[in-house]
Design a protein that fits this description.
This protein is an alpha/beta fold. The chain is 18% helix and 27% strand.
């Protein structure tokens, strides 16, 4: 099983299936993607979905419509909901603040425009040699799941950034995964240094861009 961080919120898993989560990548995935999981329809999560020539898009109805608007053929769209399972991918409730009035207020305050519609969010649990949980860009969740790897959105907010980061750290400790993969930290003006997590978490924080799991052991590449 190979895992690659491709920038923004995008994570690639190559194991029993070739899976891409949140396809707004800054480094290209390997060819022949089978499944494309999209947590929500904000462009920093879905933006390059139409650049992928293969793969079934797994997302909520609103997010599938956004993918179609971006150019993905309808034949490659599969509407899913929390509780569904496709191959080794479990769909879970999502907690990204896509419809939160507070999020809308601060987005308009600091970016001077309305955010694009986000649709109903999802989280994804990929169960392979190691299990991986992707929660989009949520900073609080209500999930009772165990995973080996947590994809943790790490970023700086323009308002009370230290309190926000404390919430993310608390969430990571609550989910209690032995490995944490920082994501979403490379997006100015909310970029953050993932090395801040090294001394804050009891979990092992994955460094670099690519890792392999063999016989339930982590091997950095």
């Amino acid at each position: 099983m190979k895992i690659r961080y491709l920038g923004h919120s995008c994570v690639e898993i190559i194991g029993r299936h070739h899976i891409l989560i949140d396809p707004d990548f800054t480094s290209d995935p390997e060819p022949d993607v089978e499944y494309i999981c999209v947590t929500h329809a904000h462009m920093d999560h879905i933006g390059r979905v139409a650049d992928l020539p293969t793969g079934i898009v797994l997302a909520t109805e609103e997010t599938c419509r956004a993918a179609e608007d971006l150019g993905v053929p309808r034949s490659r769209l599969q509407v899913v909901s929390p509780g569904d399972q496709v191959a080794n991918i479990r769909m879970l409730p999502g907690f990204s603040r896509v419809n939160d009035p507070v999020y809308l207020f601060f987005y308009m305050l600091f970016r001077r425009r309305r955010p694009e519609p986000g649709g109903k969010p999802l989280s994804f649990l990929v169960e392979d040699e190691a299990s991986l949980l992707h929660i989009g860009d949520a900073h609080e969740v209500d999930l009772q799941v165990n995973s080996d790897i947590l994809c943790l959105p790490w970023r700086t907010t323009p308002f009370r950034p230290q309190r926000y980061k404390e919430m993310i750290i608390k969430m990571a400790e609550q989910l209690n995964a032995p490995y944490v993969l920082p994501i979403h930290y490379d997006m100015p003006p909310t970029d953050a240094d993932p090395s801040e997590l090294w001394t804050e978490l009891s979990a092992f924080v994955l460094r670099g861009k690519e890792w392999r799991f063999r016989n339930h052991r982590l091997i950095s590449i």
